[in-house]
UniProtKB/TrEMBL annotation:
Residues 7-237 form the NAD-dependent epimerase/dehydratase domain. It comes from Listeria grandensis. Belongs to the NAD(P)-dependent epimerase/dehydratase family. The lineage of its organism: Bacteria, Bacillati, Bacillota, Bacilli, Bacillales. It holds the Pfam family Epimerase. InterPro entries: Epimerase_deHydtase, NAD(P)-bd_dom_sf. This is NAD-dependent epimerase/dehydratase family protein.
Length: 306
């Protein structure tokens, strides 16, 4: 395997940490930019990984990218919280849009640059009319967060058209797995509340669906995407639709804790159904999700450690 330089923005976050774990199994050189606003520098990050603590919007980050001159950038750093994006559109857009533009402009100056992998989201689709969303389905975000991801995809596509800038944007479904900090996603919230013997909060009827993908499958996809020769957008998902009520049952069964959830009104900006087709990425790379929801949850809660 030829040794390459990988730079991961947001490499200390939830998905980034797993990307580092997988890259550490390879001979590649690994560099990280993270401002540690929510991420943590953990022991798994090891000495083989060089960390630059700075903001992706800063000149310091630009300088570092030029100094490292990576072959690949996996761009994960972002404002990731939908409710925060509703409350502070300005902060969300500044971090997600301006931060991404800053990173892509730096990469354009690198002579041997091979590909920019962008962490996009199923949030770009908004409320789906179709049962299985493909990359050609309408993108109508229902939150500033989803809009920021869509705008970044369009900047990447524009730069491909203008200057042949090589990129892949991966639209992740709902990613779950073990987190270093208290997770705000639905699976982490259910688990945390149940473990504290408190009633988990369930928004809306609970019949709304999501496509849940295990973090290890997402990390594998991010690294594989560097091998794709064609720029474009790819869904990273399981093709499976699971209702929030079903997820609640799964988590309760795995933890063997039974508490009646507290039901509340649906949240502003939340989409009703979300299920994505992963066919395009499968065809391009041969990737398949390895873990079912049950298997992913068992790993998340340490019932299986191998
Ligand atoms: N987790 C999911 O379900 C999911 C779904 C779809 C898309 N995504 C996208 O995947 C990416 C990674 O998500 P995650 O769940 O690992 O999030 P995370 O919050 O765990 O990680 C983000 C990392 O970026 C860092 N960061 C934030 N703002 C920064 C800035 N301005 N400069 C430098 N570093 C900064 C944080 O410290 C953190 O380490 C994000 O772009 C997110 O939008 C995540």
């Amino acid at each position: 395997m030829e040794k390459k330089r990988f730079l991961i923005t947001g490499g200390c976050g939830f998905i980034g940490t797993q990307v580092l774990r997988e890259l550490l199994e390879t001979p590649h050189e690994i560099f990280v930019i993270d401002d540690l606003s929510s991420g943590e520098w953990t022991s798994t990050s090891e000495t083989r990984v060089a960390l630059k603590v700075c903001d992706i919007r800063s000149e310091e980050a630009t300088k570092y990218i030029l100094e490292v001159s990576p072959h690949y950038v996996i761009h994960l750093a972002a404002q990731v919280d939908v409710p925060t994006s509703m409350a502070r559109q300005d902060i969300d857009a500044d971090t997600n849009i301006m931060g991404t533009i800053n990173m892509l402009l730096a990469c354009k100056k690198i002579a041997n640059f091979e590909r920019f992998i962008f962490a996009s989201s199923a949030a770009v689709y908004g409320n789906s009319e179709t049962s299985l969303l493909t990359e050609l389905s309408d993108a109508k975000p229902r939150s500033p967060y989803g809009m920021s991801k869509l705008v970044c995809e369009q900047y990447l596509s524009l730069n491909k058209t203008m200057d042949d800038f090589p990129y892949c944007a991966l639209r992740f479904a709902n990613v779950y797995g073990k987190k270093n900090r208290l997770g705000k996603d639905v699976i982490s919230c259910f688990g945390n509340k149940l473990k504290n013997q408190e009633a988990p909060i369930l928004f809306g009827s609970g019949e709304q669906t999501r496509d849940f993908i295990f973090v290890d499958d997402v990390a594998t996809a991010l690294i594989l995407a560097t091998e794709i020769k064609k720029s474009g957008i790819y869904n990273i998902a399981t093709n499976e639709q699971t209702s929030i009520n079903e997820v609640f049952q799964h988590v309760s069964n795995i933890l063997q804790i039974s508490i009646t959830p507290k039901r509340m009104a649906p949240r502003l900006g939340d989409v009703y159904n979300s299920c994505l087709s992963n066919q395009k990425f499968k065809d391009a790379t041969g990737w398949e999700p390895k873990y079912t929801l049950q298997e992913g949850l068992e790993r998340m809660y340490n019932l299986i450690t191998t």
